[in-house]
């Protein structure tokens, strides 16, 4: 069984357990559910935008612990101060060490910044959870969902005022998953079956297949400012980076130094 399949099997059990504890109706009365969302698409296309989606991630299935010594508030606030256009916060605990509380703390610490809930979405319940947490954007992974599921979850997110980042990593996933319920397409340069490192050639190869009506985001394996400059030539406006910042003692400083190299 691939790592992705293992994660999805675990996630479905987790969601069933969550639903048994708190109903969707109760979620709609809690947290940040009533707040208006910030638009990631707007943030990425502003002329002065860095395009960086900076990620808070404690660990990964392939790397193990990356950084568990820093708080989510200090990392995300430093990211924003250093120029991040958006934050990405993991909420999967078994495989990535993330929690709902991480997200809520990041939301409170950064009230004016778009934040992506980074998790493996398999059920509409998680979309409602994301809204209650204060998410502006949710992630839908094409490798984990069929086209009908993507359409249903994407439309639900849009009806709640959130945007969807659709993640693909090959031509087949891209061609079968697009729709007007999606505004942002992310190309994952990492192999989701084994989480092995790749390079940004996947983003370059898929760029011309993504219609211009969608904002393009390149995810993972971005080694430096030169890579971002190359990807901009292919039409990419967003760049999701996590591990290269998180593996340092000061992720926000690492982002600032990264940007100063451009």
UniProtKB/TrEMBL annotation:
Top-level taxon: Bacteria
Database matches in InterPro entries: Aldolase_TIM, Indole-3-glycerol_P_synth, Indole-3-glycerol_P_synth_dom, Indole-3-GlycerolPSynthase_CS, RibuloseP-bd_barrel
Top enzyme class: lyase
A GO molecular function held by the record: indole-3-glycerol-phosphate synthase activity
Lyase found in the keyword field: yes
UniProt feature coiled coil, ranges: none
Pathway listed: Amino-acid biosynthesis; L-tryptophan biosynthesis; L-tryptophan from chorismate: step 4/5
Pfam families (alphabetical): IGPS
Matches recorded under NCBIfam families: PRK00278.2-4
PANTHER family assigned: INDOLE-3-GLYCEROL-PHOSPHATE SYNTHASE, TRYPTOPHAN BIOSYNTHESIS PROTEIN
Designated name of the protein: indole-3-glycerol-phosphate synthase
UniProt gene name: trpC
